[in-house]
Design goal:
Length: 885
Amino acid sequence: MKTELPKGYEPAQVEQKWFDVWEQRGDFHADEKSEKPHYSIVIPPPNVTGVLHMGHALNNTLQDILCRWKRMTGHEVLWMPGTDHAGIATQNVVEKQLAAENKDRHDLGRDKFVERVWQWREESGGQIINQLKRLGASCDWQRERFTMDEGLSKAVREVFVRLYQDGLIYRDNRLINWCPRCHTALSDLEVEHDDKKGNLWHLKYPVKGSDQYLIVATTRPETMLGDTAVAVNPEDERYKGLIGKTVLLPLVDREIPIIADDYVDMEFGSGAVKITPAHDFNDFEMGKRHDLEFINIFDESGNVNENGGPYNGQERYEARKNVVADLEAKGLLEKIDDYANAVGECYRCKTIIEPYMSKQWYVAVGPLAKEAIKAVEGGDTKIVPAQWEKTYYEWMYNIQDWCISRQIWWGHRIPAWYCDDCGEITVAMEDATSCAKCGSANIRQETDVLDTWFSSALWPFSTMGWPEQTDALKKFYPTSCLVTGFDILFFWVARMMMMGLKFMDNVPFKEVYIHALVRDAHGQKMSKSKGNVIDPLTIVDEYGADAFRFTLCAFAAMGRDIKLSTERIGGYRNFVNKLWNASRFALMNLEGFDPSSTKLEDFELSQADQWILDRFAKTAEEANTALEDYKFNDVAGALYSFTWHEFCDWYVELSKEDLYGDDSQAKQRAQTVLYTVLEGLLRLLHPILPFVTEEIWQALPGERPAISIMQADYPTGGFCSVDSAAVERMELLMDVIRAIRNIRGELDVPPGKKIAVDLDCKSTASVSAIEAGQAYIKSLARVETLQIAVGLEHPKQASTQVAGDVEVLIPLAGLINVEEEESRLNKEIAKVQKDVDFFTKKLSNEKFVANAPPQVLEKDRGKLQAAEEKLTILQQSLEKISSLK
């Protein structure tokens, strides 16, 4: 094995090399025959059209950390990968290609179009898989699945047929989200809401048999053509005398009733609302309660149909303009207000969606939801953080039947056939050739496909081979954990719960960890329109995957969004470089060292040795506890602190005297401890920093049981027992060294200048501890002469700090010129005071504060705070110096 590392760490030269080795060797592959305890995770399948974004990067980094950690703790780990066929998104991609050829899908016909989509998928789809690999995702790539592959298609069909046979799938004509451009129903998740400036039109409806008008307010005046009632609150004194009477609907002269319903908000508009059951979700429910007529006024493209009277054939916004103009001409437009409204848009084509009456397929989810609620209440599945359980319950207790049909061609075609002779529906596992009721061959298959979420709801068990009872299912189902974002807790997680309990008689996962969003440095949601999107692949190119992964882990505090900036990623690149440089130092001092020939027990360990071994043991315990509890930021914090501040800053320095000295026994002892701690530290860091740790680990001297660090054991504690008193003595020495360094810094003593130090101890035990470690003090604090005693006489002029029960005194005679130091500090204070005054004045300017962007204000406030803190330190130093006169 090589025993040295290049001077600088170059991620690009390391990452692809090791990932290829791991994958080709099958290091990620799960063995269902293994007798090890299992740990399994299914990847939230990214869309086959997708490219890696920050949400994917966070989600998959956290999963990879868990999987690598569990492999190292002796588990057989299955991390199941795959992609979702993304019905609407993928169809849109291919339709755009056809449009560039001046064609549409109807020119090809259904079969040829589906062939074209498969061709696109083979050539261009799934690039996100390779992007996940660049992050280091250690999925079992040999098992990669696709929601339209043969096995998953069989599972989808089986589930549909069984649910239909159980009476849980049915057809009904009701209101759904409709995209007039894509010509399909949409789930709530496929509708994105955007706040837009609009209007609130106040319309006058004449009350029949009087000269009175009811004024209704609406954001969609064109839908009045489909009104079938006006509703008021039964407690509204203004309208009690009108309930039961009728109004004459303007423009179409249809007589409609005035009804009473508690849903009506007396404070909104005039307190009277128009009811359009076929074009508003709330009105739909009211229409059912009051047995109103449902009048659909639009066709599937959003154009007014024959029910719209004189507006027949007009596009919906053209009709809006004309309806408003005609009402105004008839004196029936009371007023128009400006009104901001959250408008629903199709998540793919951005067309404004239309609530639309349509006959669709539904899953009756009530019985399924009941079992899914019980599973969480009973602790079969635990949701972390726990506050998301409340959201889960709220959704599940108020769940509506699930619309599962989509009017597109790409997807799982619904296995239902309509008989044109008897009108019955045949649903079957195999393609039907005749009607199951009358035997007629005059049947036609449903043209709709299933909602993409239908197939992904089966993901935890369909990917493992269900409906076949495979070894993978027996070993790895239910899965151990699901890592996902809160935005799909209901749309995906809840549906997987329902389907898993229904078809596997068990929950699909034991725990669900809900992570937060990745935002920009100012807490803003990343979006292309804001120009604040950070591309994960650009970050990996510039800083390396390890630094990026560590940043995501370090900021993944439970329940708190991640504020990400390139500066923070750059800081963790420095951390990776710090580890690299410390490892280079270690390897240069381990030349000829054979770890198999020595053990820690062979030596009388120094205080420094025992201290670092104790700190390693505590850090390993912290890391394991934090990972068990999904406290990713805590594990990153513990490992960062130990690596940088204890191993690199302290132990590496403390070991130099023995490594560079003439005592061969001391050198061998220091080499043994240095090797042991570094090798163990690499294993602790590996789940977060897979690439750099493998590269360094492979360069260590000697042979190890595993061929890869990812197959080595994860440390759970220390390497040997240590003397706690020795650890305490070492910590006292370190406090003394820090105190001396602080005084040197305050007095601006040149780094190379050796100084005299007096240590007044309050106990003989402290004297003994310091005498035993005085070589450390002299070396690390640049001390030439050191006096140690209980009740030591204090110099007349000295700078003082306290470390434990030791008073640290640095005589100033001959060390500094008090007048010169006073002058220097006064100049520095005057300079910093200018900065404080400048930013104070700037931030006191009300006009500036009112108009400056938030990020500018935040930056300036930070500069003011830093300047004020620096000023305070300088003033305290001046007081100390002045007191020495």
